[in-house]
Amino acid sequence: MAWTTILAIYFLIWWTVLFAVLPWGIKSQHETGEIAPGTDPGAPTVTGFKSKLIWTTIVATVVFAVFYGLYISHAVTLEDLGTLWGLIGQRRS
Q: What does the H/E/C string look like for the chain?
């Protein structure tokens, strides 16, 4: 597998994990009772974006390492996935 493909797959996993990590630890202005004038009460008070980027990188690296390890060791092949999803092994009449 080319390094550009590996980088693209890692980026896709990282981006997906980012959206899973974004809601972690968010407190709205309504929850904290500190609503700034002219803002929505549901707006977050402190986002902690730097720590979320770090957690995203950690989680994405672990997920990527598992999938890459399965790919390198041939523990799961494309034929296995095709059979699992019912794409291979079906007879068409």
A: CCHHHHHHHHHHHHHHHHHHHCCCCCCEHHHHCCCCCCCCCCCECCCCHHHHHHHHHHHHHHHHHHHHHHHHCCCCCHHHHHHHCCCCCCCCC
pTM of the model: 0.72
Q: Tens digit of pLDDT for each residue in 62-72? A: 999 999 999 89
Q: How many CB atoms lie within 10 A of CB 27?
A: 13
∠ CA 5-8-9, nearest 5°, is: 85
The two tokens of residue 9 are: 């797959």
